[in-house]
Each structure stands twice: as structure tokens, then as C-alpha cells.
Design goal:
It is a single chain. The strands form 4 sheets. A 7-stranded mixed β-sheet has the order 9-8-10-11-12-16-17, with helices on one face. The protein is an alpha/beta fold. Helix 1 runs antiparallel to helix 2. Helix content is 39%, strand content 20%. The protein folds into 2 domains: 247 residues, Rossmann fold; 134 residues, Response regulator (Rossmann fold, 3-Layer(aba) Sandwich).
């Protein structure tokens, strides 16, 4: 872990980047920024030795544009704790987005924290005391729930990159780059029902996860609307009772569709059990975004038998054929000399949305602070001038022996 973090920091401290800004004569000048070795040494010390969030002012704050009217955009989450490369991709994506803005009014600051509700509270209070004008991040609803009322109270908008708006975090000033869960559920069931007829559906839910409970609610509503009968089983991630599914597969009519609303590791454990004990039975599986992405495939990696029929949905994927999406991937490669992650493109759009919010921000009593923003991102997220948030992309992914691929 130490070696990976040192590698991450060394690369960032030596990397130079260019950003175009308008000078007083309105011609374009180049500014180069180098991340401070001292600052990232501090980052390393904080990540390893303390559970507290840390703040590092991004070098973009030194540009003429940000000096003229600086607004502080804070990046937060727990991802860097388990994957320094993930944190790097997050930061670089946001920086790349700001580089594309003609009038950059934004300085970045980083506040990563250890995974726990208490650390989420500490990090949020730290960002408030640091006068953050906007926040991007938080990796799960469980991180947002303890602080969900603070964003409206302090009038600080939050855009979460991966957490859809669930029942518990549906609050003013909280927004998501992810479509509502119900959209994902309707999309995947409509697609599969056009191709197959399922007679015995099994729904398995980790009820100790906020997002999975919302998935369960959406799937049950859709199945009932479709007049498709199903068996509903609730388990917990901490102590899953997989043995409860044994009687269902010992019946003559075994489940032909199993919907797994669990984390990737538990989903793989259940699938491995079914495939090992009932290898001749043809079962189709549905999962969630927790199964991973085209680059990160935790569910697939844990499968003992890769030749299964399984699907899940993602709003964004490396396989997106959209030329604008692929163009940003190319820009990232050219700028940083490495491959981006999907989080890079989400952060790219979110940072640009915030920069336009900072430019257009006026005192308002409206509950939607992004009213007046007109932005359509490469990830398919669109803020209209009326403040309406719409989503234009959603993909069905299929598990193949070679990994995840587009199903449609």
C-alpha cells in the first residue's frame, strides 16, 4: 500500500499541465502548474497516519481566472483509501474539465476520508469550515446520510458521482451524476423481458444497504406492474444466510431469473454456490452497478465459472461509442500519459457544471442552486436553464467469459 501511494504521489508531484486562460488583452496564455511535493507528502502522511480529512489547494488556483474571483470546489470521498489510482483519476478528471472552461473561476481542494459515518461527518464539517463553495464526491449513500441536512443549511451544493438519489438522501442541494434507480430497473427488465420469458423469479436483497433497499422497492414495483410473480428474500452483508435459497432450488421449478441486490463479493458467492450445486440448471442473473465497470470487474473476478448469463446496467462505460465521450478519453491520455477511469469523466463534467454555477451564482431563494446552468455533459447528464436535471445515457452490460461487454 505504501509503495502504491508513493508512486501515486511521485507521479503527481512531477507532472506538469497546461491550462489556457484569458489575459487582459483577451489573448490566450499558457500557465504550467506543478503539484507541490510538500503538499502531497502531507497527503501521504494524513492518509496513512490519521483518519482525518486533508485539504490541498490545487495549482489551478494560481491562474489569472481563479485569482480574479476564486471559488473553492472540494473533492471528497473514501475511494483513495483503497485505490490511490482511483483518487488520482478523480482529481485529474476534475482538473481536465476546468482546463476546458474559457473562464475558470474554480480552485480545487481535496478532502478524502476513511470509510465510516463518523469520518464523513468530520470531513463535511472540515469542508464547511474551509469555506468550500461546492462539493463533488461521497462514494455511498451511507456516507451522505449522516450529513444530508448540512448542505442545504450552509447552502453548499453537493454533486455525488456514483451515488444515485435514494430515499434517505433526497434532500435540497444534493444532486447525483447517476440516474434514479427506477430508471435502471425499468431499463434492464424491459430489455430482458423482450428476449426471454421468466416463470420463477428470485429477488435477493441486502437490506442493510440503503441503495439496495431502494433497488428492492423499484424491482418489486416493476415486477408487480408486469404481473410477474417472484419470491423475495432479504439478507445482510455482514451475516448472509445463503442457505435460505437452498429449498428454492430443490423444487421442481427452480428460479430461472435471480436478481442480486448485493455487493459484488456476495453476489459472486451466491452465483458460485448456485452454479456449483445446480450446474445443469439454466439461470439468468441481474445485478447492479456494484458489480463494477469495464475496467474494474470485482464480481467477474470472483466468479468460478465465467460462462454465466448475467446482466447489469451502467450509465457510463468505456464502451460508450459517443465521439465526444471518446474525445475526452483521448484528451486525458494526452494530458496525463495514462488511462482514465469512468470517474475521471464524471468528475470532468461535474467540475465544469460547478464552474458555470460559480460564474452565474446570484442570491436566490430557489431550492435548486443550479437554476440558470445550461450544460450537457459527455456522460449524458444535462442541467437545463430551468434547473431541471435529465440523463441521456444508460447501457446494459453483459457478463461474458472475457469480462464485461455491451449487451446492446
Amino acid at each position: 500500500m505504501m509503495r502504491r501511494l508513493m508512486s501515486f504521489i511521485t507521479k503527481l508531484t512531477t507532472q506538469q499541465q497546461s491550462t489556457a486562460v484569458h489575459n487582459k488583452n483577451k489573448s490566450l496564455t499558457k500557465k504550467h502548474s506543478v503539484l507541490s511535493l510538500q503538499a502531497f507528502t502531507l497527503l501521504l502522511a494524513n492518509l496513512i497516519n490519521t483518519p482525518q480529512s486533508i485539504a490541498i489547494t490545487d495549482p489551478l488556483s494560481n491562474t489569472e481566472a481563479s485569482r480574479s474571483a476564486p471559488k473553492k470546489l472540494c473533492l471528497t470521498g473514501t475511494s483513495v483509501k483503497t485505490s490511490p489510482a482511483y483518487g488520482e483519476a478523480f482529481i485529474n478528471g476534475a482538473k481536465l474539465g476546468l482546463m476546458q472552461e474559457k473562464d475558470n473561476r474554480t480552485a480545487l481542494e481535496v478532502h478524502f476520508f476513511n470509510p465510516s459515518p463518523l469520518e464523513s461527518i468530520k470531513a463535511t464539517k472540515k469542508m464547511i469550515s474551509s469555506d468550500c463553495d461546492g462539493i463533488i464526491g461521497f462514494d455511498s449513500a451511507n456516507d451522505i446520510i449522516p450529513v444530508r441536512d448540512l448542505f442545504e443549511k450552509h447552502k453548499i451544493p453537493l454533486i455525488s458521482l456514483y451515488t444515485p438519489i435514494t430515499t434517505e438522501i433526497n434532500k435540497p442541494y444534493i444532486f447525483s451524476m447517476q440516474r434514479p434507480i427506477v430508471d435502471n430497473v425499468q431499463h434492464i427488465l424491459n430489455n430482458l423481458n423482450r428476449q426471454h420469458t421468466f416463470n420463477n423469479i428470485l429477488l435477493i436483497t441486502s437490506i442493510d444497504k440503503s441503495r439496495m433497499r431502494d433497488y428492492q422497492k423499484a424491482f418489486k414495483a416493476k415486477l408487480i406492474a408486469n404481473k410477474q410473480s417472484f419470491t423475495d428474500i432479504s439478507i445482510t452483508e455482514i451475516n448472509p444466510t445463503i442457505e435460505n435459497i437452498i429449498p428454492l432450488f430443490e423444487k421442481e421449478h427452480k428460479p430461472d431469473l435471480v436478481i442480486l441486490l448485493t455487493r459484488s463479493s456476495l453476489s459472486a458467492k451466491i452465483v458460485n454456490y448456485i452454479q456449483q450445486n445446480y450446474p445443469k440448471h439454466q439461470t439468468t442473473y441481474i445485478g447492479t452497478v456494484s458489480w463494477g465497470s469495464s475496467k474494474f470487474q470485482p464480481f467477474f473476478d470472483r466468479l468460478k465459472d465465467k460462462s454465466i448469463t448475467a446482466y447489469f446496467t451502467r450509465q457510463n462505460t468505456y464502451f460508450d461509442p459517443d465521439p465526444k465521450f471518446q474525445s475526452v478519453i483521448d484528451q486525458y491520455r494526452l494530458t496525463y500519459r495514462k488511462e482514465p477511469m469512468v470517474i475521471s469523466l464524471l468528475a470532468y463534467d461535474a467540475a465544469r457544471i460547478f464552474n458555470r454555477y460559480f460564474i452565474n451564482k446570484t442570491p436566490s431563494s430557489q431550492s435548486n442552486p443550479f437554476t440558470g446552468i445550461n450544460y450537457l455533459g459527455v456522460t449524458g447528464v444535462e442541467f437545463s436553464t430551468e434547473g431541471n436535471l435529465t440523463y441521456h445515457k444508460l447501457f446494459t452490460m453483459k457478463v461474458t467469459p472475457g469480462g464485461y461487454r455491451l449487451s446492446e
